[in-house]
Design brief:
The protein is of the alpha/beta class. It has two domains: 189 residues, no CATH class; 90 residues, no CATH class. Helices cover 46% and strands 11% of the residues. It is built from 14 helices and nine strands. Strands 1-9-2-3-8-7-6 form a seven-stranded mixed β-sheet. A two-stranded antiparallel ribbon has the order 4-5. β2, α4 and β3 form a beta-alpha-beta unit. The chain is globular, with a radius of gyration of 27 Å. The protein starts with a helix and ends with a helix.
């Protein structure tokens, strides 16, 4: 073996060692800095839609934050001097179990409640739609006045069901408070953004979240991330990997590819040859549907359903493609008689959590199209 060959071999080994070292450092950095997985408004999740930042701030200010995953845990953790926060996840229980929450001691803080939650836990309120967004508090509620300007921008507001309800209305009705017949203080907020890790830094969001959630020494946080009685499935190795491992793997693939191009044999140009294959449109749709299902991409499937519904309805309603959310919802409500708040949830709400939720969403969107076509 000549001296030149020996040096070339050594340089290749050093290059491989350097690549392995870079990969090890990248994986370690990813492991240490990757966000902790979690669901929507999960107090332990550091994802953008989680609430770990708020839970940490509350604990630093002396508030005992208890995460409840079931109705029994929530009821047993509440006291007469506590706040029960109910977050709008897809795993909230049925009406019967929610009735048990209504009998729990302490005050209630309902975040963007759905129709069932509002009917059970805040029956003295009625939800409505509004095209006007008020960022200033406009009320004498201490928590809102200390927070200042907050952008709720949901198009949903709350009003008292009867004149006998002494309702404090802030931000144009997007945040309300009243005392129910059991003596509990019930606070309802129409938006979730001010509680999330991503939205906490905007405007007065952090102050409002701290003031509402930290009014009592104990906060019971009820944001179930799975159905009650359902056992958590065993995590696969891909579930245990940090999100950025894929990015590191792609870097390694690119590095190896560059090394192969540098050291490998040069091949001739590729020859493109058309194949006599005709793919029917139905097969394309079915294939994409199976792809969504295999990857559990319910969010992308829901976005496709909602976008298609809106694109078909806007010409029928005489709206342009640039029409805003409020215009579309109001026009559909006028033609179909559907509640604007329900339309907003169906057309612009969160992604379905299960396949059944996705199917129900598809049926609901189909019903809306039929109602508009045949009012």
């Amino acid at each position: 073996m000549t001296t030149a060959t020996t040096r070339k071999t050594r340089s290749r080994w050093w290059l491989l060692i350097a690549l392995v070292a870079i990969a090890a450092v990248a994986v370690l950095a990813t492991q240490l800095t990757s966000p902790r997985a979690g669901g929507f408004l999960d107090p332990e999740s550091t994802a953008t839609n989680g609430s770990h930042a708020l839970a940490t701030l509350l604990r630093e200010h002396g508030v005992e934050v208890i995460e409840a995953n079931t109705v029994d845990e929530a009821v047993s953790a509440t006291t007469g001097n506590s706040t029960l926060l109910v977050a709008p996840t897809y795993y909230l229980p049925d009406r019967d179990k929610l009735q048990r929450l209504s009998r729990a001691p302490g005050d209630l803080l309902l975040i963007a409640p759905n129709f069932v939650v509002q009917d059970v836990l805040a029956p003295d309120l009625r939800a409505g739609a509004s095209t006007v967004t008020q960022k200033s508090p406009g009320c004498d509620l201490r928590a809102a006045r200390r927070a200042g300007a907050v952008d709720f921008d949901t198009g949903r507001i709350y009003r008292a069901a009867t004149d006998s309800v002494d309702l404090t209305s802030c931000y144009g009705g997007a945040l309300v408070r009243y005392r129910n017949g059991a003596g509990q203080t019930v606070t309802v907020a129409a938006n979730t953004d001010f509680l999330t890790n991503d939205g906490l830094r905007d405007g007065g969001n952090a102050a409002l979240a701290m003031n509402l959630a930290g009014e009592h020494p104990r906060l019971v946080w009820y944001a179930p991330q799975q159905l009650e009685g359902e056992k958590s499935s065993s995590a696969s190795i891909t579930d245990l990997m940090p999100d950025r491992v894929g990015w590191v793997i792609w870097q390694l693939i690119i590095a190896v590819a560059l090394l192969a191009l540098w050291q490998g044999r040069r091949l001739g140009p590729l020859i493109a040859e058309p194949l006599p294959v005709v793919v029917r449109a139905s097969e394309t749709v079915e294939g994409r549907g199976r792809l969504y299902q295999s990857h559990r991409a319910r969010d992308r499937a829901a976005d496709a359903l909602r976008s298609a519904t809106i694109s078909r309805l806007t010409p029928r309603l005489g709206l342009s493609a640039a029409a805003g959310r409020t215009q579309i919802v109001d026009a559909i409500a006028a033609h179909s008689g559907t509640d604007p708040a329900r339309l907003t949830h169906l057309l612009y709400g969160p992604a379905p959590a299960t396949d059944d939720d996705l199917i129900n969403l598809a049926h609901a969107l189909d019903d809306i199209e039929r109602q508009v076509a045949h009012p």
